[in-house]
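Lab notes, practical 5.
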Amino acid sequence: QGSELSGWAMGRWTYEGIDLNHNFADLNTALWDAEDNDLVPHEFPNHYIPIPEYYTFTNATVAPETRAVIDWMQQYPFVLSANLHGGELVVTYPFDMTRTYWKAQELTPTADDGVFRWLATVYATSNLAMASEERRLCHYDDFARFGNIINGANWHTVPGSMNDFSYLHTNCFEITVELSCDKFPHASELPAEWENNRESLLLYMEQVHRGIKGVVRDSDTEQGIANAIISVDGINHDVRT
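Output from the prediction step:
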């Protein structure tokens, strides 16, 4: 159909008709309801939020690909991730779902908004296509005015996104990279797309070295403590060792 004529929806659904980008469990609503009722974090956790029971039923509309990714995330303690999309030039960061359920767009930051904005900026400022002075609009949104980053929910709401799920169910901080105006570049264009993103990917991965690192140990035995909860003053989102 032409490199930029296929539209947003092309290739979005699986054979079963499931949009994998909206297929993860919605943990946001449970957290926000608990926050509104002053239950966080003493009666309801602000991290490692459990998957709701309805989502685990065999007849739930959950793709096998989604279940496989969740199993993978639970098996390995990832701390940094990015998922790659096409069709725009922008980096989005959580939350992807608007807190006001009936709004299509609304700035909805996480408790770690500063970290997410930094991660998104690292990628966007080192991406050759995004940083180019000759950068053109992909469609109608001028993301260059915002440094080519945006809060996902402030662009368009995505309930059940992988980014929000990663942040609320695991220790992993995840962003979405819309890495090309062209959702289906021709084979001859792939080397240029790689050059646009190579340094961004490397710099992004290097961000795992930021922040607090170490081992939580028992003061008597010096043995490491599994699942120790680490809290930072002023940030209502804990992490676990």
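Observations recorded by the TA: The beta strands are 80-85, 88-93, 149-151, 173-180, 229-232, 235-240. The two ends are 49 Å apart (CA to CA).
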